[in-house]
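for the record, two folds in this file. i put them one after another cuz i was lazy. first one right below, seq on top, structure tokens after. the second one comes after a little note so u can tell where it starts
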Amino acid sequence: MSEEVNPGSRNGPEVVGVEVLKKSGLNVDTLIDKLVRATAAEFTTYYYYTILRMHLTGLEGEGLKEIAEDARLEDRLHFELMSQRVYELGGNLPKDMREVANISACSDPYLPEGWKDPRSILKVLLEAEQCAIRTWNEVCDMTYGKDPRTYDLAQRILQEEIEHEAWFLELLYNRPSGHFRRSYPGEGPLSRKTRTG
């Protein structure tokens, strides 16, 4: 007869993948907390980017929607990708949606009052990407040499967030970014490669 395990509890059979991380010196509880906050930020960003994208209007704004859409859909992909890892480590996502926004690692990217100027929206998008870069860089620093799976997922997300930042810097400050159209909206060329299911 198999041992019954409560999925919401860390009690139950030994999870070798977690024990190995603890032996490497990684504080798994701290990592789970960081990942839950980071995934909460990705989910809230996805939500707010939906609103921001809708408000990119007029001739100038219409041309920016595709780039905002790529970032929006890739942030949803990041949420889905890392949520799986949270559960593998024995963690949980909040059961209440209101808590997701409260624990987010980044501030909510609200629609600015002067939203009719697309540059004001681009500034909000840029700030959100810069927070995501800092957050995923911290996860990479925390897991480098200790947790290859989380590190691999986080560095793929980090690379895409750096690319998103470059897009918005290009649009705001006329900086070259090397942005190429995605093959399809929300492609996630680095993070999608590791997605399961």
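(here's the note) second protein begins now
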Amino acid sequence: MKLSVGLKVANTLSLTPQLQQAIKLLQLSSLELEQEVQIQLDSNPLLEKVDDDFSSVEKEEQIDQSTQDEFKNDNLPDDLPVDTNWDEIYTNQSTALATPEYEEREDNRSSSVSLSDHLLWQINLLHLSEVEQIIAYCIVDSLDESGYLDCEIEEILFAAQHLLEQADIQEEVELDEVMVVLKYIQRLDPVGVATRNLVECLSIQLESYDQNLTLKENTKKLLEHASLLLTNDVNRLMKQTQLSLEQLKQAMALLKSFDPAPGAKYQEKEQEYQTPDVILQKKNERWQVFLNPDVLPKLRINPYYAGMIKRADQSADNQYLKNQMLEAKNFIKSIDERHKTLLKVATCIVEHQRNFFEIGAEGMKPLVLRDVADEVELHESTVSRVTTNKYILTPRGLFELKYFFSSHVGTSSGGECSSTAIRAMIKKLIAVENPKKPLSDNAIAKLLQEEGIDVARRTVAKYRESLNIPASSDRKVLI
């Protein structure tokens, strides 16, 4: 084997640290971007946030004056070697718009009272013995999110007896005592809480109804045949209860007025609030897209530390400042590129989905990542990153940018129809159907075919299930 030395030319793709940073910032959400900016502000002295208390021009003049005074105090020579082009420094480079176009609002949310706290407050007002209070606490602790009893009576008996032993109370708890306390709690507010099933819950609420005694008795007969009521067997209900059709309707209307989940309204739901990255408004009959100024970081190079680099000596401190200034400039540039790319992609999506913003979901057009990528001259992966966890505020609500991408179904005219538009049409057809004769999936498919949309029955069933709409047999209402 002969050894030799030669030259070889080849094309390779390398990700520079600047490119890696730009890709990372591109896929961050607004909250993650805020956290990343804070990390950079804490670690880089050359990077600073623009203060809104006073104008950046006034602040820069104050810092420049202090810098000049420091130079005078150090007795530096007039001519200093400078290896940095001063025009390249972003002394007042803000990445946000000048003023927000919508009013800021205060957060008026208040913490709600939980179901257990609400019940315990009422229990403390009752004249219960110490043993009964312990039983009541065990019952309240056994309720689920809807207010139903989530365990057997024997388990409550065992838990109460165990707590009594821990409290050194030598008293035996009986099952009848638990039932008495349970009935007390079931009639507290909300009425029907701590029941074991839906029929018992409705029965407890029916007991507190005293406006129409005849209607109350008819409804009680209806609850005695709950199995027929659940299957909506009207004929057998009328035969078993000896009620007329009109009386049956009135009794069912009364049952529907009761709360089947009395504890659900006390359940504290964690609400997720999304801040829009892009805002869409219609001005002068034209749709305009712009970035949300409240989520854009206002950053610039610190002029005080940047001024110290003018000395251009080779000390370790000066080299450190140079490196930090380069990192700060690259970070600001990456954020600017992120915003430009986001605005470009959002504008392209709005142009394609103009009918959606005009008429609603039925105007949604088929759109895939490649369509937008080809138009804005970006890679599909870049478009995917910039549309993930990015939200646009429109007159029709807040949407993730990925919402506007959907598959398509062919039409009889040779065109295409978005799956989102088909879902909206199915929802609209079901909303206006006759509840006594609901539309089957096959009937919906035929109606869509009459509109020129070639869709199979299985496709209709899939879209209907994605909308959480039950089948026609479950939607049927006889009375």
